[in-house]
From TrEMBL:
<dbReference type="GO" id="GO:0005737">
    <property type="term" value="C:cytoplasm"/>
</dbReference>
<dbReference type="GO" id="GO:0004735">
    <property type="term" value="F:pyrroline-5-carboxylate reductase activity"/>
</dbReference>
<feature type="domain" description="Pyrroline-5-carboxylate reductase dimerisation">
    <location>
        <begin position="160"/>
        <end position="264"/>
    </location>
</feature>
<dbReference type="InterPro" id="IPR029036">
    <property type="entry name" value="P5CR_dimer"/>
</dbReference>
<keyword id="KW-0028">Amino-acid biosynthesis</keyword>
<dbReference type="GO" id="GO:0055129">
    <property type="term" value="P:L-proline biosynthetic process"/>
</dbReference>
<feature type="binding site">
    <location>
        <begin position="6"/>
        <end position="11"/>
    </location>
    <ligand>
        <name>NADP(+)</name>
    </ligand>
</feature>
<keyword id="KW-0560">Oxidoreductase</keyword>
<feature type="domain" description="Pyrroline-5-carboxylate reductase catalytic N-terminal">
    <location>
        <begin position="2"/>
        <end position="97"/>
    </location>
</feature>
<dbReference type="Pfam" id="PF03807">
    <property type="entry name" value="F420_oxidored"/>
</dbReference>
<dbReference type="InterPro" id="IPR008927">
    <property type="entry name" value="6-PGluconate_DH-like_C_sf"/>
</dbReference>
<protein>
    <recommendedName>
        <fullName>Pyrroline-5-carboxylate reductase</fullName>
        <ecNumber>1.5.1.2</ecNumber>
    </recommendedName>
</protein>
<comment type="function">
    <text>Catalyzes the reduction of 1-pyrroline-5-carboxylate (PCA) to L-proline.</text>
</comment>
<feature type="binding site">
    <location>
        <begin position="68"/>
        <end position="71"/>
    </location>
    <ligand>
        <name>NADP(+)</name>
    </ligand>
</feature>
<comment type="pathway">
    <text>Amino-acid biosynthesis; L-proline biosynthesis; L-proline from L-glutamate 5-semialdehyde: step 1/1.</text>
</comment>
<keyword id="KW-0963">Cytoplasm</keyword>
<dbReference type="InterPro" id="IPR028939">
    <property type="entry name" value="P5C_Rdtase_cat_N"/>
</dbReference>
Length: 268
């Protein structure tokens, strides 16, 4: 199986690194293509990849092609790709919003998997949702799942609506967590802690809370009650968040990302 990744940015490179480390593909079976000469020069120094700056040399020979460019790049990219593809090739899109029909129409292809990854894939802790077009066989879907799982874990969803929805939860989600972290770091610095101590306090708090959550069947709400003593400090913080409607605002933010994913799918 020969895999080509188009776009050596955050996601394309992350997936390339995940697949390169797995026993699924040898170096000669993994190719990466980008249009940025600086990225090509840098990647050429790495032993793990076969790097290309023109599609003619890598696209026709690929069995599975990952699409990891920004949605606004596809109009130009698909025009160049379409005359060079064949009907046996399977395309896996990591792009937010872009629908299976847009990819099928733009490339003249039938086998498309649409996936929504997230950035913790960089450290093998990503979560990817995926769904497929009718022409993708069960065996092909298992192959794709194995490739996606080289960066973490994955969930199969029945419809594209859930790809857009997971964009609002897990795709964009790491940014919400970093937003919360940044706010806590800023508060720690304001209280007088050094940058180093602020980082230790905040990162261990996140890591510890996640570990507690993962090692039990207890909901976050119940964990909140275990931290909060009646009339104590935590209750004061939670009351402040409730008074400011923080829960609703976070839900609104997730829906804003979900809505934007749908909107991106309609942009040409
Ligand atoms: N970053 C994230 O956390 C997530 C991103 N995604 C999706 O992944 C996709 C890629 O995002 P991300 O990796 O962050 O973006 P990046 O901008 O980091 O990477 C895109 C890469 O593709 C290159 N490129 C642009 N046009 C072409 C072309 N025609 N042919 C080949 N390469 C090209 C870009 O070069 P240049 O820089 O010169 O334009 C860049 O190197 C997006 O569609 C996004 O929706 C999904 C989930 C999470
Ligand atoms: O912000 C974006 O559009 C992409 C999709 C999910 C994360 N980054």
């Amino acid at each position: 199986m020969k895999v080509l990744v188009i776009g050596a940015g955050n996601m394309g490179l992350t997936y390339s690194e995940g697949m390169a480390k797995s026993p699924l593909l040898g170096k000669q079976n993994l190719k990466i293509y980008d249009t940025d000469p600086k990225k090509i020069t840098k990647l050429n120094k790495e032993p793990h990849f076969d790097v290309y700056d023109n599609l003619e040399d890598c696209l026709p020979k690929a069995d599975i092609v990952f699409l990891a460019v920004k949605p606004f790049h596809i109009a130009e990219l698909f025009k160049t790709m379409a005359p060079q593809i064949n009907q046996q090739q399977l395309f896996v899109s990591l792009m937010a919003g872009v629908t299976i029909d847009t990819i099928k129409d733009g490339l003249g292809a039938t086998k498309v998997v649409r996936a929504m990854p997230n950035l913790p894939a960089k450290v093998g802790k990503g979560v990817t949702s995926y769904t497929e077009s009718e022409a993708v066989s069960k065996v092909e879907l298992i192959m794709v799942r194995n490739l996606l799982d080289t960066t973490g874990t994955s969930i199969h969803v029945e419809t594209e609506k859930f790809i857009d929805a997971s964009t609002g939860i897990s795709g964009s989600g790491p940014a919400y967590v970093f937003y919360f972290m940044q706010s806590m770091l800023d508060a720690a610095l304001k209280m007088g802690f050094s940058a180093y101590d602020s980082k230790v306090l905040v990162s261990n708090t996140f890591e510890g809370a996640i570990e507690l959550f993962n090692q039990s069947d207890i909901s976050p709400e119940t964990w909140i009650n275990r931290v909060a003593s009646k009339g104590g400090t935590t209750q004061a913080a939670i009351d402040s968040m409730d008074d400011n409607n923080v829960k609703q605002l976070i839900e609104d933010a997730a829906y804003a990302a979900f809505d934007r994913a749908i909107e991106l799918g309609k942009e040409k």
